Amino acid sequence: MTVRARAAGLLRYGWTAPLALAALVALLPALGAGLTLQRELMLAALYGLLVAGFNLSFGFGGQLALGQVAVFAGGAYTTAILFSHGVSELAIAIVASMAVAALLGLITGLPGLRFSSWALALVSFFLVLIIPNIVEIFSAQTGGGNGIPGILEPKLFGATLDAEGLYVATVIAAALCLLFLRNLVKSRYGHGLLVLKQGAPLARSLGLSPFRLRLSAYVLAGLPAGLAGAFYAYYSGFIHAESFDFDLVTLLLAASVIGGINSVWAAPLAAAILIIGPEQASSFEQYSLLAYGVILMLVGVGFSIGLSGVGDALVTRIVGRPQRPAGVAERGAVVSQPSLVIAGERLETRGVSKAFAGVTALDGVDFEAEPGAITAIIGANGAGKTTLLNAISGHVRPDRGEVRLGDAQLSRMKTEQIAKAGVARTFQTPEIPESLTVLEIVASSRIGEHWIPAAAIAVRAPRYLASRRQDRERAMAALEFVGMAEEAALPARELPLGRRRMLEVARSIAAEPSLILLDEPAAGLDPEAIEYLRAVLLRMRDAGGTVVLIEHNVNFVMEVADSVYVMDLGEVIAHAAPEEVRQDERVISSYLGRRAAQAGPGGPSGAMEVSDAR
Amino acid sequence: MMTTIWSGLSVGGLYAMAGMLFTIPLVRCGIINFAQAFYVVLGGYGIVALADQGWGTVPILLALLIIGGILGGLQELLTIRPAKGRTDTALVTTLGMAIAVQGFIIAVWGTEPKSVSFFGGGEPFTLLGGRIEPGDLWLLGTAIAAAAVLQLAVTGTRWGLLGRAAMIDQTAATLRGVNIPRQRTLAFALGAGLACALALLAAPKTGVIPSSGLHLAVFAFAALSIGGLGSFVGCLFGGLFIGLVEAFAARYLDVNWAAILVFVILCLILVARPGGVFGIRQLRAV
């Protein structure tokens, strides 16, 4: 076993390293660490929780929701108010603060369900701005501008905690919470957020409801903030509105980008740097805000990958990056012959019509596709091909008409329900979340199905592990089916266009679909990649799949399709076997063009290519 | 009563103008420059510093326009252009610029508030049955004039046409020979220059204090969201409306309810009418 292979093996247990570090930090008082350092590390742990929760919506969700500070304030005030009513049991305070935080996360997240980046960022800033006003209005409970002083001596399960005890409890709680968060983001849940960040249409086509996913992310992001708030009340001993202001927001943002916006473990490290750093150079204090601003600009422009990015790069240096097997993509045929059944269903549309602002895109389209056959749709740009595909997959809601798949009536369903009913699709421009590996992307094919509670994922419950294993097996089978098994561990962003297309095909196969919709899979591919695609399509057909193909490359369509629909101006103008379509007068005049008519079937290769086809 | 209306309209005029400053880069390139409101605060400190040197109002105005213009131009060149004008990274970098400006202010001048007197004198007088200060009347008048001029510029000039073309489809505009990056730099410079200059009117009203930047940014955003993203006249009405809501809530309810009320109204309008009341369709806030 080489050193590299051994290192790679150890990586599987990489998650234990931060825990070991946390244990070491928890033991620091016993090793003689002073009170000042203890307090700094506590604050770093608490801010680390805030940042990690914030990253869930910022780094994974792609939304700048700064309401996290308000949620944190809610947690801290909950604990402080409980204390002023004589409840100093930390366990109760934690549960109550987290409950309040989840609720606040939900409320502060509501704008995020509808608003885009700018509005959400500014609305959440507004929320932080009015914290003092809210505190003042409830001054009977919150003490108004005077705050709540003297929050000391918490009890844990009845025993009073001294400063050291609180320190140890803080570090352990933070480490556990971060471990759960890490488990969550490195699971179908985190992948779901990345899929959503890539785009809502992709998320829906994989059966995810963007609404539910965002909502749950805001609630989940609130939990660590609530936990941090509970500990912060006892850490600080004094809660007042000024602790939760613009400066804290900027610290949070700076720590997030310094640690890396997709990170969990780097969050407390970055927070520690920002807390302890200024202490070492006292002159830094007054420049800290200026520095945070500059850091944000640098990161935004792309000059930094954060601590976690540096860490990943180091690991890659030691272990070596997964190599793309040479020549795999260029090989014309799919080598292995895996046996996989794709249980296709019969697709039928009746009278599907759709108009966009008065312009008719689909006009009473009747369309059928059989299992075990490739049904192609051709037509000039604007003929309505993609609109028909979108109407079937639910991305466009037809004005009239019916879509049936097997016994299921799709035309009344939402996109994500249609996906769950067995419709898988690819996109003209491959929709591939960049930061995932090939295997992870294919495994995300049924991410919206059999929802597992976040708690079960966070603690890696057996039922989650079982479903993860199943997802991976199914993904591997799909990758083998398209001949990409050797590329499973590669980061998706390193794939060339042809392989990205194939990756989308694999993802749709892994969904065990009743219907596969392929939107111009051959566009932009070189002849070898097209040949490869042809082999895969035929194999999908032979496996029993119902394959619907939109394509401009007429020669390609004539080679693979069993049946061809020709569309023009939103209507089907011909439906026949490929050879017959070639002879059809209307098809020739509307789409294939005169040259094709003169050359006829069997004419020089390429004569059929339509001049404006992409 | 009338005094409350005047007070609401004047502060509303300020929000409206700050909102218009957001709108200038927005209608050019679809980016909200978060730092805009912080330039206004920086301008306030510029006035303090220059007035200490014995500068007159007109030289200060010119200096603010130039300093702001340079800052805004540099901001675009250094943080927006390298990211090719992508709006998602602009969100982070313009916020970074805002924080950096505030950090710069704190590093140089500290957090102690400073005050600036209005250049036109400060004796309040009675107008239509309410007390108003000359500075307040200037705020309102300038806001109305600015809305009219900017709206005409956008709808009636080649500059406005180029901007709208760039906003609707950058690629198409580029193909027709519009130099998008230069348009963007100019828009950022113009917005920042006017923001610094706005301090001449704003600083006497709000005082010169670092933390006023965030407040102004948020309320200006509320003004333009309510009025409609991309519309200067809408921005004027949105700003005046918010100013009135704030003034009346503070007068008859409670100071603390004023901000909360504006927040709730903002959220409701964003949900019910994402394009605002006067908005351009392409520029939905959500």
Note down, in words, how this protein is organized.
The complex is a heterodimer of chains A (614) and B (286). Chain A folds into 2 domains: 10-243, no CATH class; 347-599, 3-Layer(aba) Sandwich (Rossmann fold). Chain A is 55% helix and 11% strand. Chain A has helices at residues 3-11, 16-27, 35-60, 68-84, 90-114, 117-129, 131-137, 139-142, 163-185, 188-198, 200-205, 210-236, 246-259, 266-280, 288-301, 306-319, 385-393, 415-420, 438-443, 454-458, 462-481, 497-510, 527-542, 554-560, 578-583, 585-592, 594-599, and strands at residues 155-156, 159-160, 347-356, 359-369, 373-379, 400-405, 408-409, 423-425, 515-519, 546-550, 563-568, 571-576. In chain A, α13 packs parallel to α16. Chain A is elongated, with a radius of gyration of 29 Å. Chain A starts with a helix and ends in a 15-residue tail after the last helix. Chain B has helices at residues 2-29, 36-52, 57-80, 87-109, 134-156, 158-168, 170-175, 180-206, 212-227, 232-253, 255-272, and strands at residues 125-127, 130-132. Residues 281-286 of chain B have low confidence and may be disordered. Chain B has a domain at 2-106 and 131-209. Chain B has 11 helices and 2 strands. At the A-B interface, α6, α7, α13 and α15 of A face α4, α9 and α11 of B.
Pick out the low-confidence regions of chain B. Answer: 281-286
The count of β-strands of chain B is: 2
Largest interface comes to: A-B, 43 and 49 residues
Low-confidence stretches of chain A: 327-335, 596-614
Q: Quote the average pLDDT of chain B.
A: 83
Helix amount of chain A, in percent?
55-70%
Compact description:
With 614 residues, chain A is of the alpha/beta class. Chain A has 27 helices and twelve strands. Chain A is elongated, with a radius of gyration of 29 Å.
